[in-house]
Amino acid sequence: MKQAIIVDQLLSQHPIISDQISKSALAAVLQQLDKVLTQDVAGAVVEFGCYIGTTSLFMRRLLDAHQQSDRRQLFAYDSFRGLPDKTTADSSGAGEQFKGGELSVSKKQFLQEFHKANLTAPVTVKGWFKELSPNQLPTTVAFAFLDGDFYESIIDSLRLVWPRLTTGGVITIDDYQKEALPGVERAVRDFFQDKTIQLHHEQHIAIITKS
Ligand SMILES: C[S@@+](CC[C@H](N)C(=O)[O-])C[C@H]1O[C@@H](n2cnc3c(N)ncnc32)[C@H](O)[C@@H]1O
Questions:
Q1: Which domains occur in the chain, in start order?
Q2: Of the residues 89, 93, 118, 148, which has the maximum number of CB atoms within 10 A of its CB?
């Protein structure tokens, strides 16, 4: 009950600054993060595909509400050049939603949102996910939000996060089972085909817990 209250309060007190995540999906992500913070699962909080910072701002607010910002790092990753090109795994009968180069904001714009909100910025890393080096990643991850929209972006971020995820840690993935973005579900299916996981989904957010 307390968990839902913190998340609901944050969502009622602060604006959602882009149309890239719905309020209900954001609530589902934050509720999972809230559980991880309450259980004090060890590791950093990471977001792959942060765009203008809509979700990252709320993740910082939640870390602050739990008084964990001093001891738990928040990382935000993005090309800051928009989406990469689609591959065949992203073709959908639902039509052409999103193309390479769309959703481009600068790292400066992202950091300005934190400044405007008077919040501490995450460790912010510019680059394509597949080109990140190990020293740009935390050693252990407690919670991840993956929001890269396309097959390659999701599978690349899963390859980075899964080996670093602590037992009890959670990965949340946006756009799961969305007709316009079929690459997301395909990437999840392909990546986990030889692994035993607990997966459920709500509000098009896949929720995967490492046990
Ligand atoms: C839907 S937006 C993310 C929205 C954000 N999570 C939010 O809550 O507002 C997708 C973002 O992922 C980034 N992105 C997608 N694929 C990427 C890749 N392979 N490497 C780096 N950035 C990527 C895009 O630049 C874009 O900013």
A1: 2-209 (3.40.50.150)
A2: 148
**Average pLDDT for 104-124:** 98
Please list the residues that pair with 113 across neighbouring strands.
none
Q: What is the mean pLDDT of residues 24-52?
A: 98
Amino acid at 175: D
Strand order in the sheet with 141-146: 123-126, 74-78, 44-48, 141-146, 165-174, 205-209, 198-202
Q: How far apart are CA 58 and CA 169, in angstroms?
A: 19
**Residues having CB within 6 Å of any atom of ligand 1:** 18, 20-21, 49-51, 54-55, 78-79, 82-84, 103, 128-129, 147-150, 153, 156
Q: For 6-37, how does the pLDDT look when each residue is reduced to its tens digit (9 = 90+)?
A: 999 999 999 999 999 999 999 999 999 999 99
Residue 137 CB coordination number (10 Å): 19
Residues 78, 175: contact at Cβ < 8 Å? no
Q: What is the pLDDT of residues 180-190, one digit of tens each?
A: 999 999 999 99
CB 166 within 8 A of CB 41: yes
Atom of ligand 1 nearest to the CA of 156: 19
